[in-house]
Amino acid sequence: MKVPDSRSFWDVVYERRHEIRGIAHSHPGGGLPSPSYEDITTFDAMEEGLGLRLEWWITSSNRLISCKWQGKQNYSSHEDFGVYPEWLPELRSLSGYGKGNEHDNSNSSISG
Q1: Which of 2, 42, 74, 109 has the most CB atoms around its CB within 10 Å?
Q2: Cβ–Cβ contacts within 10 Å for residue 68, how many?
Q3: Domain ranges of the chain
């Protein structure tokens, strides 16, 4: 489910918190993405507020990582997926990748 980063996004996350396995978003450009300080503090606050541990996916135009909690504001990441999530092409498309817009704003989606 694609939801813009807005109040409605947070409402959907809270309403569907028992169905959500993780949240994905895109970073501009290509190469190996990594979580920003803003990402880490957002992950931490959301998990604390929801009382859940989630998987956090970050995609660039050509790479994908997954982050998981390892302790207060400490998340480990990995890139070895074998099979990529079914939602990845749609998120990359919504992010403008492949259209010459690799530096557009990021988008978010929820995986349940």
Answers
A1: 109
A2: 14
A3: 7-111
